[in-house]
Design goal:
The chain folds into 4 domains: about 80 residues, Uridine Diphospho-n-acetylenolpyruvylglucosamine Reductase, domain 2 (2-Layer Sandwich); about 120 residues, Uridine Diphospho-n-acetylenolpyruvylglucosamine Reductase, domain 3; about 70 residues, Alpha-Beta Plaits; about 80 residues, 2-Layer Sandwich (Alpha-Beta Plaits). It has 13 helices and 19 strands. With about 400 residues, the protein is α+β, with helices and mostly antiparallel strands.
Protein backbone atom coordinates (compact mmCIF):
# COMPACT_ATOMS: atom_id res chain seq x y z
CA UNK A 1 0.00 0.00 0.00
CA UNK A 2 1.46 3.35 -1.01
CA UNK A 3 1.98 6.14 1.52
CA UNK A 4 -0.31 9.23 1.60
CA UNK A 5 2.47 11.39 0.14
CA UNK A 6 3.02 8.92 -2.69
CA UNK A 7 -0.72 8.96 -3.41
CA UNK A 8 -0.70 12.77 -3.52
CA UNK A 9 2.26 12.76 -5.89
CA UNK A 10 0.55 10.22 -8.12
CA UNK A 11 -2.65 12.32 -8.13
CA UNK A 12 -0.66 15.45 -8.98
CA UNK A 13 0.99 13.70 -11.91
CA UNK A 14 -2.32 12.48 -13.30
CA UNK A 15 -3.91 15.93 -12.98
CA UNK A 16 -0.86 17.47 -14.66
CA UNK A 17 -1.43 15.13 -17.59
CA UNK A 18 -4.93 16.61 -17.96
CA UNK A 19 -4.39 20.32 -17.27
CA UNK A 20 -0.63 20.79 -17.72
CA UNK A 21 2.11 20.73 -15.10
CA UNK A 22 2.11 24.53 -14.69
CA UNK A 23 -1.55 24.44 -13.67
CA UNK A 24 -1.40 21.94 -10.82
CA UNK A 25 -0.19 23.05 -7.37
CA UNK A 26 0.15 21.27 -4.04
CA UNK A 27 -1.15 23.38 -1.14
CA UNK A 28 0.21 23.53 2.41
CA UNK A 29 -2.83 21.73 3.81
CA UNK A 30 -2.24 18.75 1.52
CA UNK A 31 -4.99 19.61 -0.97
CA UNK A 32 -4.29 20.17 -4.65
CA UNK A 33 -5.35 23.11 -6.81
CA UNK A 34 -5.85 22.39 -10.51
CA UNK A 35 -6.75 24.96 -13.18
CA UNK A 36 -8.36 23.44 -16.31
CA UNK A 37 -8.34 25.32 -19.59
CA UNK A 38 -11.82 24.44 -20.84
CA UNK A 39 -15.00 22.49 -20.17
CA UNK A 40 -13.50 19.26 -21.55
CA UNK A 41 -10.67 19.37 -19.02
CA UNK A 42 -13.16 20.08 -16.22
CA UNK A 43 -15.01 16.95 -17.33
CA UNK A 44 -11.84 14.86 -17.32
CA UNK A 45 -10.87 16.10 -13.84
CA UNK A 46 -14.29 15.30 -12.38
CA UNK A 47 -14.27 11.88 -14.01
CA UNK A 48 -10.85 11.20 -12.46
CA UNK A 49 -11.99 12.56 -9.08
CA UNK A 50 -15.10 10.42 -9.03
CA UNK A 51 -13.18 7.24 -9.83
CA UNK A 52 -10.72 7.98 -7.03
CA UNK A 53 -13.24 9.32 -4.48
CA UNK A 54 -11.55 12.72 -4.35
CA UNK A 55 -13.69 15.57 -3.02
CA UNK A 56 -13.78 18.73 -5.18
CA UNK A 57 -14.36 22.40 -4.43
CA UNK A 58 -15.01 24.70 -7.44
CA UNK A 59 -13.03 27.91 -6.95
CA UNK A 60 -13.66 31.32 -8.46
CA UNK A 61 -12.55 34.63 -6.97
CA UNK A 62 -12.82 33.31 -3.42
CA UNK A 63 -15.08 36.16 -2.28
CA UNK A 64 -17.78 33.81 -0.95
CA UNK A 65 -15.79 30.67 -0.27
CA UNK A 66 -16.62 30.80 3.44
CA UNK A 67 -20.37 30.96 2.83
CA UNK A 68 -21.86 27.81 4.24
CA UNK A 69 -18.51 26.71 5.81
CA UNK A 70 -17.59 23.26 4.44
CA UNK A 71 -14.58 21.00 4.82
CA UNK A 72 -11.17 21.07 3.16
CA UNK A 73 -11.49 19.20 -0.15
CA UNK A 74 -8.91 16.97 -1.81
CA UNK A 75 -9.03 19.18 -4.92
CA UNK A 76 -9.71 22.87 -5.49
CA UNK A 77 -10.82 23.21 -9.09
CA UNK A 78 -9.93 26.76 -10.10
CA UNK A 79 -11.82 28.24 -13.05
CA UNK A 80 -9.39 31.15 -13.43
CA UNK A 81 -8.41 30.10 -16.97
CA UNK A 82 -12.03 30.00 -18.14
CA UNK A 83 -12.22 33.79 -18.18
CA UNK A 84 -13.50 34.85 -21.62
CA UNK A 85 -16.64 36.55 -22.82
CA UNK A 86 -17.38 34.03 -25.57
CA UNK A 87 -20.17 35.76 -27.43
CA UNK A 88 -22.07 39.06 -27.26
CA UNK A 89 -24.77 39.31 -29.94
CA UNK A 90 -25.79 42.74 -28.75
CA UNK A 91 -28.72 42.96 -31.18
CA UNK A 92 -30.35 40.06 -29.28
CA UNK A 93 -29.57 41.50 -25.82
CA UNK A 94 -27.81 38.28 -24.76
CA UNK A 95 -24.27 37.10 -24.04
CA UNK A 96 -22.32 33.91 -23.33
CA UNK A 97 -19.46 33.99 -20.83
CA UNK A 98 -17.13 31.50 -19.14
CA UNK A 99 -17.59 30.96 -15.43
CA UNK A 100 -14.13 32.19 -14.42
CA UNK A 101 -14.61 35.66 -15.91
CA UNK A 102 -14.85 38.36 -13.25
CA UNK A 103 -18.13 40.21 -13.02
CA UNK A 104 -16.48 43.61 -13.58
CA UNK A 105 -14.69 42.42 -16.73
CA UNK A 106 -17.96 41.08 -18.12
CA UNK A 107 -19.81 44.32 -17.39
CA UNK A 108 -17.07 46.43 -18.98
CA UNK A 109 -17.25 44.31 -22.13
CA UNK A 110 -21.02 44.64 -22.35
CA UNK A 111 -20.86 48.38 -21.69
CA UNK A 112 -19.07 48.96 -25.01
CA UNK A 113 -22.50 48.39 -26.60
CA UNK A 114 -24.44 50.26 -23.90
CA UNK A 115 -25.66 47.09 -22.18
CA UNK A 116 -25.23 45.31 -18.85
CA UNK A 117 -26.43 42.40 -16.76
CA UNK A 118 -28.86 44.05 -14.36
CA UNK A 119 -27.28 42.64 -11.22
CA UNK A 120 -25.00 44.15 -8.56
CA UNK A 121 -23.29 41.33 -6.64
CA UNK A 122 -20.70 41.76 -3.90
CA UNK A 123 -17.04 42.44 -4.74
CA UNK A 124 -17.50 42.80 -8.51
CA UNK A 125 -13.77 43.23 -9.21
CA UNK A 126 -12.95 39.77 -7.82
CA UNK A 127 -16.22 37.80 -7.90
CA UNK A 128 -16.54 35.49 -10.90
CA UNK A 129 -19.60 34.65 -12.95
CA UNK A 130 -19.63 31.07 -11.65
CA UNK A 131 -19.30 32.19 -8.04
CA UNK A 132 -22.11 34.72 -8.36
CA UNK A 133 -24.36 32.04 -9.85
CA UNK A 134 -23.40 29.42 -7.25
CA UNK A 135 -24.15 31.79 -4.37
CA UNK A 136 -27.20 33.45 -5.99
CA UNK A 137 -25.87 36.83 -4.94
CA UNK A 138 -27.78 39.99 -5.80
CA UNK A 139 -28.12 43.55 -4.56
CA UNK A 140 -30.53 46.45 -4.73
CA UNK A 141 -30.99 46.31 -8.53
CA UNK A 142 -33.21 43.29 -7.96
CA UNK A 143 -35.92 45.80 -7.01
CA UNK A 144 -36.37 46.69 -10.69
CA UNK A 145 -34.95 43.84 -12.75
CA UNK A 146 -35.72 40.71 -10.75
CA UNK A 147 -33.46 38.02 -9.34
CA UNK A 148 -30.44 36.31 -10.86
CA UNK A 149 -32.64 33.35 -11.75
CA UNK A 150 -34.62 35.72 -14.00
CA UNK A 151 -31.48 36.87 -15.82
CA UNK A 152 -29.65 33.61 -16.60
CA UNK A 153 -31.13 31.83 -19.64
CA UNK A 154 -28.69 29.00 -20.24
CA UNK A 155 -25.71 27.13 -18.80
CA UNK A 156 -23.02 24.65 -19.66
CA UNK A 157 -22.28 22.48 -16.66
CA UNK A 158 -20.28 19.38 -15.77
CA UNK A 159 -21.82 16.72 -13.55
CA UNK A 160 -19.75 14.88 -10.92
CA UNK A 161 -19.39 11.85 -13.22
CA UNK A 162 -17.83 14.04 -15.94
CA UNK A 163 -20.94 14.36 -18.09
CA UNK A 164 -21.11 17.68 -19.94
CA UNK A 165 -24.67 19.03 -20.04
CA UNK A 166 -26.24 22.12 -21.56
CA UNK A 167 -29.48 23.59 -20.29
CA UNK A 168 -31.57 26.51 -21.47
CA UNK A 169 -30.39 28.35 -24.56
CA UNK A 170 -29.10 31.58 -26.04
CA UNK A 171 -32.44 33.33 -26.50
CA UNK A 172 -34.67 34.88 -23.86
CA UNK A 173 -37.83 32.96 -24.83
CA UNK A 174 -36.80 29.37 -24.23
CA UNK A 175 -39.14 27.05 -22.36
CA UNK A 176 -37.96 23.60 -23.51
CA UNK A 177 -37.18 21.05 -20.82
CA UNK A 178 -36.65 21.30 -17.06
CA UNK A 179 -35.11 24.60 -15.97
CA UNK A 180 -31.81 23.42 -14.51
CA UNK A 181 -30.53 27.02 -14.50
CA UNK A 182 -32.82 27.87 -11.60
CA UNK A 183 -31.84 24.71 -9.72
CA UNK A 184 -28.09 25.30 -10.11
CA UNK A 185 -28.32 29.00 -9.17
CA UNK A 186 -27.68 29.16 -5.43
CA UNK A 187 -26.55 25.52 -5.11
CA UNK A 188 -23.09 26.54 -3.77
CA UNK A 189 -21.32 24.17 -6.14
CA UNK A 190 -22.85 21.06 -4.59
CA UNK A 191 -24.66 19.67 -7.66
CA UNK A 192 -22.46 20.43 -10.67
CA UNK A 193 -19.73 22.78 -11.85
CA UNK A 194 -20.89 25.64 -14.06
CA UNK A 195 -18.39 26.38 -16.84
CA UNK A 196 -20.41 28.77 -19.07
CA UNK A 197 -23.54 30.87 -18.70
CA UNK A 198 -25.89 32.72 -21.03
CA UNK A 199 -27.54 35.91 -19.79
CA UNK A 200 -30.29 38.23 -20.90
CA UNK A 201 -29.13 41.86 -21.00
CA UNK A 202 -30.64 45.30 -20.42
CA UNK A 203 -29.69 48.76 -21.73
CA UNK A 204 -27.43 50.72 -19.40
CA UNK A 205 -29.44 53.36 -17.51
CA UNK A 206 -28.60 56.83 -18.79
CA UNK A 207 -29.95 59.02 -16.00
CA UNK A 208 -29.64 57.88 -12.39
CA UNK A 209 -29.77 59.94 -9.24
CA UNK A 210 -29.66 58.78 -5.63
CA UNK A 211 -31.40 60.12 -2.53
CA UNK A 212 -31.70 59.15 1.12
CA UNK A 213 -34.29 59.69 3.85
CA UNK A 214 -33.40 59.36 7.56
CA UNK A 215 -35.50 58.32 10.54
CA UNK A 216 -34.82 57.12 14.07
CA UNK A 217 -36.99 54.02 13.64
CA UNK A 218 -37.32 51.89 10.54
CA UNK A 219 -41.10 51.62 11.00
CA UNK A 220 -41.22 55.39 10.49
CA UNK A 221 -40.12 54.72 6.90
CA UNK A 222 -42.49 51.82 6.25
CA UNK A 223 -45.40 53.70 4.69
CA UNK A 224 -43.06 55.74 2.49
CA UNK A 225 -41.30 52.60 1.27
CA UNK A 226 -44.66 51.02 0.42
CA UNK A 227 -45.77 54.18 -1.37
CA UNK A 228 -42.60 54.30 -3.48
CA UNK A 229 -42.94 50.62 -4.42
CA UNK A 230 -46.52 51.13 -5.61
CA UNK A 231 -45.93 54.47 -7.36
CA UNK A 232 -45.15 55.24 -11.00
CA UNK A 233 -41.65 56.43 -10.11
CA UNK A 234 -38.90 54.80 -12.20
CA UNK A 235 -37.16 53.35 -9.16
CA UNK A 236 -33.88 51.65 -9.99
CA UNK A 237 -32.97 50.53 -6.47
CA UNK A 238 -34.26 50.66 -2.90
CA UNK A 239 -32.51 49.71 0.33
CA UNK A 240 -32.80 50.28 4.06
CA UNK A 241 -29.59 50.78 6.06
CA UNK A 242 -29.04 50.91 9.79
CA UNK A 243 -26.57 53.72 10.50
CA UNK A 244 -25.59 53.95 14.17
CA UNK A 245 -28.78 55.04 16.00
CA UNK A 246 -30.91 55.73 12.94
CA UNK A 247 -32.08 54.23 9.66
CA UNK A 248 -31.61 55.45 6.08
CA UNK A 249 -33.98 54.66 3.23
CA UNK A 250 -31.96 54.94 0.01
CA UNK A 251 -33.70 55.52 -3.31
CA UNK A 252 -32.18 55.53 -6.80
CA UNK A 253 -34.29 56.96 -9.62
CA UNK A 254 -33.63 56.28 -13.29
CA UNK A 255 -35.57 58.88 -15.29
CA UNK A 256 -34.75 61.73 -17.66
CA UNK A 257 -34.27 65.03 -15.77
CA UNK A 258 -37.19 66.59 -17.64
CA UNK A 259 -39.52 64.12 -15.91
CA UNK A 260 -38.78 65.84 -12.56
CA UNK A 261 -39.40 62.63 -10.66
CA UNK A 262 -37.26 63.88 -7.79
CA UNK A 263 -39.96 66.51 -7.19
CA UNK A 264 -42.60 63.81 -6.86
CA UNK A 265 -40.36 61.85 -4.49
CA UNK A 266 -39.74 64.97 -2.39
CA UNK A 267 -43.49 65.57 -2.11
CA UNK A 268 -44.11 61.97 -1.04
CA UNK A 269 -41.36 62.31 1.58
CA UNK A 270 -42.73 65.59 2.95
CA UNK A 271 -46.19 64.07 3.30
CA UNK A 272 -44.64 61.58 5.73
CA UNK A 273 -42.99 64.39 7.70
CA UNK A 274 -39.52 63.38 6.52
CA UNK A 275 -36.73 65.10 4.56
CA UNK A 276 -35.24 64.04 1.22
CA UNK A 277 -31.49 64.52 0.74
CA UNK A 278 -29.13 63.93 -2.18
CA UNK A 279 -26.80 60.98 -1.65
CA UNK A 280 -23.59 59.52 -3.05
CA UNK A 281 -23.67 56.50 -5.35
CA UNK A 282 -21.17 54.85 -2.99
CA UNK A 283 -23.93 53.95 -0.55
CA UNK A 284 -25.01 51.20 -2.95
CA UNK A 285 -21.75 49.40 -2.12
CA UNK A 286 -22.31 49.57 1.65
CA UNK A 287 -23.26 45.88 1.74
CA UNK A 288 -19.63 44.98 1.04
CA UNK A 289 -18.43 46.74 4.21
CA UNK A 290 -20.45 44.34 6.36
CA UNK A 291 -18.06 41.49 5.51
CA UNK A 292 -15.15 43.02 7.42
CA UNK A 293 -12.75 40.85 9.39
CA UNK A 294 -14.20 39.71 12.70
CA UNK A 295 -17.83 40.31 11.75
CA UNK A 296 -20.48 37.63 11.89
CA UNK A 297 -22.73 38.09 8.87
CA UNK A 298 -26.26 36.75 8.55
CA UNK A 299 -28.56 36.70 5.53
CA UNK A 300 -32.21 36.89 6.58
CA UNK A 301 -35.18 36.79 4.25
CA UNK A 302 -38.58 38.27 5.12
CA UNK A 303 -41.65 39.28 3.19
CA UNK A 304 -41.23 42.66 1.42
CA UNK A 305 -44.03 44.08 3.58
CA UNK A 306 -42.05 43.23 6.74
CA UNK A 307 -38.74 44.89 5.85
CA UNK A 308 -39.02 47.96 8.10
CA UNK A 309 -40.81 46.28 11.01
CA UNK A 310 -38.27 43.45 11.05
CA UNK A 311 -35.33 45.89 10.97
CA UNK A 312 -36.65 47.42 14.20
CA UNK A 313 -37.17 43.96 15.69
CA UNK A 314 -33.58 42.98 14.86
CA UNK A 315 -32.32 46.00 16.77
CA UNK A 316 -34.19 44.83 19.89
CA UNK A 317 -32.95 41.24 19.60
CA UNK A 318 -29.34 42.41 19.16
CA UNK A 319 -29.29 44.74 22.15
CA UNK A 320 -26.14 43.09 23.59
CA UNK A 321 -24.03 43.42 20.42
CA UNK A 322 -23.36 45.98 17.73
CA UNK A 323 -25.55 45.49 14.66
CA UNK A 324 -25.18 47.03 11.20
CA UNK A 325 -27.51 46.00 8.40
CA UNK A 326 -28.44 46.63 4.77
CA UNK A 327 -31.90 45.42 3.75
CA UNK A 328 -33.18 45.28 0.20
CA UNK A 329 -36.77 46.38 -0.36
CA UNK A 330 -37.76 42.92 -1.60
CA UNK A 331 -37.04 41.43 1.85
CA UNK A 332 -33.40 40.31 1.96
CA UNK A 333 -31.44 41.56 4.98
CA UNK A 334 -27.64 41.37 5.23
CA UNK A 335 -26.77 41.78 8.91
CA UNK A 336 -23.34 42.16 10.53
CA UNK A 337 -22.93 41.43 14.25
CA UNK A 338 -19.94 42.60 16.29
CA UNK A 339 -19.14 41.77 19.90
CA UNK A 340 -18.02 39.01 22.26
CA UNK A 341 -18.36 35.55 20.73
CA UNK A 342 -20.82 34.29 23.35
CA UNK A 343 -23.01 37.39 22.99
CA UNK A 344 -23.07 37.04 19.20
CA UNK A 345 -23.88 33.33 19.49
CA UNK A 346 -26.76 34.10 21.87
CA UNK A 347 -28.07 36.78 19.50
CA UNK A 348 -28.09 34.33 16.59
CA UNK A 349 -30.03 31.87 18.73
CA UNK A 350 -32.59 34.58 19.50
CA UNK A 351 -32.92 35.49 15.82
CA UNK A 352 -33.32 31.87 14.74
CA UNK A 353 -35.78 31.16 17.52
CA UNK A 354 -37.85 34.14 16.45
CA UNK A 355 -37.62 33.11 12.80
CA UNK A 356 -38.98 29.66 13.62
CA UNK A 357 -42.29 31.31 14.58
CA UNK A 358 -42.84 32.85 11.15
CA UNK A 359 -41.95 32.53 7.48
CA UNK A 360 -38.42 33.89 7.85
CA UNK A 361 -35.16 32.15 6.92
CA UNK A 362 -31.71 32.78 8.41
CA UNK A 363 -28.30 31.75 7.06
CA UNK A 364 -24.91 32.46 8.64
CA UNK A 365 -22.61 33.47 5.78
CA UNK A 366 -19.58 34.41 7.89
CA UNK A 367 -18.73 33.61 11.50
CA UNK A 368 -16.49 35.69 13.72
CA UNK A 369 -13.83 33.98 15.80
CA UNK A 370 -15.33 31.78 18.49
CA UNK A 371 -18.92 32.18 17.32
CA UNK A 372 -20.79 28.86 17.42
CA UNK A 373 -23.60 28.67 14.88
CA UNK A 374 -24.65 26.42 12.02
CA UNK A 375 -24.49 27.93 8.56
CA UNK A 376 -27.97 26.68 7.66
CA UNK A 377 -30.87 25.27 9.63
CA UNK A 378 -33.04 23.43 7.13
CA UNK A 379 -36.43 21.93 8.13
CA UNK A 380 -36.35 18.13 7.98
CA UNK A 381 -38.96 17.86 5.22
CA UNK A 382 -37.03 20.32 3.04
CA UNK A 383 -33.73 18.62 3.85
CA UNK A 384 -35.18 15.30 2.73
CA UNK A 385 -36.09 16.75 -0.67
CA UNK A 386 -32.69 18.42 -0.97
CA UNK A 387 -31.05 15.10 -0.16
CA UNK A 388 -32.90 13.34 -2.96
CA UNK A 389 -31.81 15.99 -5.45
CA UNK A 390 -28.22 15.78 -4.19
CA UNK A 391 -28.13 12.01 -4.60
CA UNK A 392 -29.44 12.25 -8.15
CA UNK A 393 -26.67 14.66 -9.16
CA UNK A 394 -23.82 13.60 -6.86
CA UNK A 395 -24.44 10.14 -5.36
CA UNK A 396 -20.89 9.84 -4.02
CA UNK A 397 -20.91 13.30 -2.41
CA UNK A 398 -17.68 14.55 -4.00
CA UNK A 399 -18.78 18.14 -4.74
CA UNK A 400 -18.32 20.67 -1.93
CA UNK A 401 -18.79 18.33 1.04
CA UNK A 402 -19.79 20.04 4.27
CA UNK A 403 -22.04 22.68 2.74
CA UNK A 404 -25.76 22.56 3.52
CA UNK A 405 -25.89 19.08 1.98
CA UNK A 406 -23.61 17.68 4.67
CA UNK A 407 -26.74 16.39 6.40
CA UNK A 408 -28.38 15.31 3.17
CA UNK A 409 -26.02 12.76 1.62
Amino acid sequence: MSSPMAQIEQTTEQLAFIAGRDHVHLNEDGSITVSPADTKQVSEILLFSGRNRLTVHPQGGGTKRRWGSGVTPNLSLSLARLNRVIEHPWQDLTCTVQAGCTWSKLQRTLATHGQFIALDPLFEERATVGGVLASNDSGALRQRYGSLRDLVIGMTLVLPDGTIARTGGKVVKNVAGYDLCKLLTGSLGTLAIITEANFRLHPLPQHTRSFTIAATDASRLGSLLAAIRSSHLLTQALQLRSVESRFQLDVQLSAHPTAHQEVVLAQMTQQEGLALEDASEEMWRMRETLFSAGATVLRISTFPTQVCAYADRLRLMASDVKLVSVAQAFGLHTVALYGAADAVTTTIQKIRGDAAKGQITVAALQLGEGVDAAAFEVPSEVLSLMGMVKRQFDPDGILNPGKFFAQAK
